[in-house]
Design a protein that fits this description.
The protein has helices at residues 24-28, 54-58; strands spanning 2-14, 34-36, 42-44, 64-78. By secondary structure, it is mostly beta strands. It is globular, with a radius of gyration of 16 Å.
Length: 79
Amino acid sequence: MLFRSRKFNMAVTIDRDTCIGCSACVGACPVSALSMDGEGKSVCDEGTCIDCGTCVSTCPVSAISQRSEERRVGKECRS
């Protein structure tokens, strides 16, 4: 029998073509997971992000979205 442990979470996606570089999301993020890159576009540190969605609702041009993402955790076992 095969057992897998799964974790579902949200992941932030930033559309770089839509981002206008206003940095509203950077100031709104409660954990400072967002920053501006060298091209003046928002980037998200997914290791710091808590998936709260504040950046999504703050972006004036809807360049940020969240998507459900499945990650496997644990080990596969056979019995």
